[in-house]
Amino acid sequence: MNDSLRGDALTASVIDIARRAGDAILSVYKRDFDVEQKADDSPLTEADLASHRIIVDSLRALTPEIPVLSEESVDIAWETRRGWERYWLVDPLDGTREFVKRNGEFTVNIALIEGDRSVLGVVQTPVTGDLYYARHGHGAFRQERPGEEPQRLQTRQAAAPLTIAGSRSHGSERQRELLTRLGEHELIARGSSLKFCLVARGEADLYLRAGPTSEWDTAAAHCVLEAAGGDVRTLSGEPLRYNRKDSLLNPEFIAVGDADIDWAARLAS
């Protein structure tokens, strides 16, 4: 990587890309649009594709030596991916169901993966302009509007009753059963990677996902949460990692603000 694009300069460039992608999404959001169904029955819109093109083209121009894996270009074979030491992992529009519902709870997610860890993450919310970003070892931040001074993020210590961020569109009976093991709690419903962001900014204690997600759904916000003091682990207690297998599906996981608690043990009780 070009030395001039390391650290803060690289982060600033990715923030700019995310904001431009968010603007493209908004241009579709404000008018009528068609909704297609992908092979897995998830929705696809013109906004997904417009954001994808901006992000992928911009990242390739910014760092031509680093490959890009996007939700809308997932046909890269494992034989190729397994040799990557560093790559961009992108969800051009996380929460397309929320986009279709027009509730504003969707995001642009861009992450840089090194080895099997997310080391740079940017999460942008097109409707509000809210943006979260982090770089491993350098803290996590929230910028509510372009040009405003970013605020450093810090997770909170967990205390009963827990505040739990839950999926707006993907709840399940298994998830509800697991949450009962954590005791009394309040559930806040959010779409997309905004659930991670609630935990990162200390407004929720955890987000538990007992259904399928893909690696591009979590990587950017994972970096933000970890840099804010939190952690993301599988339900068996292992750290959530990336690009370790042929499948791009994540295992079930719990994203927490208070990393000193053995959450896996509490869920197993």
Question: Would you mind describing this structure in some detail?
Answer:
There is one protein chain. This protein has helices spanning 7-29, 46-62, 78-81, 96-101, 173-180, 194-200, 215-227, 263-268; strands spanning 35-37, 43-45, 68-70, 86-94, 107-114, 117-124, 131-135, 140-143, 151-152, 162-167, 185-190, 206-209, 231-234, 253-256. With 269 residues, the chain is α+β, with helices and mostly antiparallel strands. A 7-stranded mixed β-sheet has the order 3-4-5-6-7-8-9. Helix 1 (7-29) packs antiparallel against helix 2 (46-62) and helix 6 (194-200) packs parallel to helix 7. It is globular, with a radius of gyration of 17 Å. The model has no long low-confidence stretch (mean pLDDT 93).
Give a short overview.
The chain is of the alpha+beta class and 269 residues long. The protein is built from 8 helices and 14 strands.
